[in-house]
């Protein structure tokens, strides 16, 4: 459907190109003040809740209750960290990490060969499989949750991390296969021909030609899958139950009721839960943006 | 392909794609069929589903809470689209321009996308707390003296619209930004030489060139609006009354709170049906097939 238009991630123009465009534009047209104003307005809307959240996480609960929502912290405190870690945060964090690493690993292990086969194999079965993946882009996970619950219970996986990992991976496959396939299409046929003359197997061609040449997309898929797995809510909510198997998103939700009015503690937990994502964003910004922007296609 | 010499390269076998196909089939395609099958059964979540004939569907057709949910789902989808599309279109087009501070802006824009839906909902719920949150300060300014924005059905719905926009406008902005960067600059240069104003350029170049992206983004929004779940669960829990109970929430309630999985499956089937129909209608009426590049006019 809509997502079938996903293309190879766009690359940023190089610095020279950007400079040339800047100079070109500013000579011809004055800056667009209204649009600039709108952007600053939206920026405020985005930034204020985030700043309030950070502000709250730095103050004690007493100060928060006494000084009102907009007061800056009187004294910066680390008490909230103690509260959060005492509430099992570390366990939820580790569970989420296990789920995320497993989802990324599984997704790449099955999606890379599948995309390679879709691009290279003449088989009709593979082509039909590709259409199946395309169909999958339009399936909302919500609508399938009851049968998935039945399936997971019957497989004896209910209330395990595996119950989260398997469906999360399955639902990340359509986009992964699509992005990888469009990247693999760009590998020139001559390269495959040259390797065939050298007597290389299809498997070797995948590892020493196709994957290295589309490494950017492989990373994009990895980063995007990690983001989805880290932030997943519905599958953990329905498919796990005990505190031992709780992931961060559910942990935050339970903190909300357990902490009562300890909003500073809650905000600290939210910030801590997003920390690895922020770090990953700093490291892999280019691939994350490429992956998300690639969804829109042209 | 046909003009070229026959391809004699070594090609991968079908089995490269098999793991991904099995995975995806088992956890996405089979459940899609199974949800319809389950809608003709009674099942309390334990034991075996029992055949129920058309009972769930008859009940569905006459259940006022489901009809209300349908109405709320559609209303929410329409309002969210109306709010998000112009905002993200304008922001994206502006962000694709040559501004010097663009990098900083897009970095801040990106932050809500990194937070999980659960985290976003929790932050907003705290901000909107009538006693201690921002709402206690800002509520009186917008005519809600007690600051209880979640107290009335209209304002609770608007809150959901605002939270969804806060979370997803950055994503759609990114889509438009990526697409706007690919519009050939010569089009604008030619228009400027003809003396076209900025507004003219926007109407006659930018909008037609972004047509594909507008459709893609709108489809994602519409299909996405059928899946707002954790936002509603955490911010309003469907309330006040049933004012924010969208279809997936109603399904969750039927299946996992009242243990009427068969009935939940019937609601889920309706959800799949509506999603598919909406996508088809949108693709048809927006003239996906007729789309051409405006470059032809040159």
From TrEMBL, chain A:
Compartments in which it is found: Cell membrane
Chain ranges of the ABC transmembrane type-1 domain: 93-284
Region spans: Disordered: 1-27
PROSITE patterns to which the protein is assigned, alphabetical: ABC_TM1
Membrane topology, from the record: Multi-pass membrane protein
Calcium is among the record's keywords: no
Residues passing through the membrane, by range: 34-56, 89-118, 130-152, 164-184, 205-227, 263-284
Highest taxon above the source species: Bacteria
Keyword annotations: Cell membrane, Membrane, Sugar transport, Transmembrane, Transmembrane helix, Transport
GO biological process: transmembrane transport
Similarity annotation: Belongs to the binding-protein-dependent transport system permease family.
Record's protein name: ABC-type sugar transport system, permease component
Automatic annotation (TrEMBL), chain B:
Protein name, per record: Permease component of ABC-type sugar transporter
Keyword Amino-acid biosynthesis: no
Family membership: Belongs to the binding-protein-dependent transport system permease family.
Location(s) in or outside the cell: Cell membrane
PROSITE patterns for this protein: ABC_TM1 (PS50928)
GO BP annotation list: transmembrane transport
Domain ABC transmembrane type-1: residue ranges: 70-284
Keywords: Cell membrane, Membrane, Sugar transport, Transmembrane, Transmembrane helix, Transport
Membrane-crossing residue ranges in chain numbering: 14-40, 72-96, 103-124, 156-176, 213-235, 261-283
Domain of life: Bacteria
GO cellular component term of the entry, any: plasma membrane
Main localisation: membrane
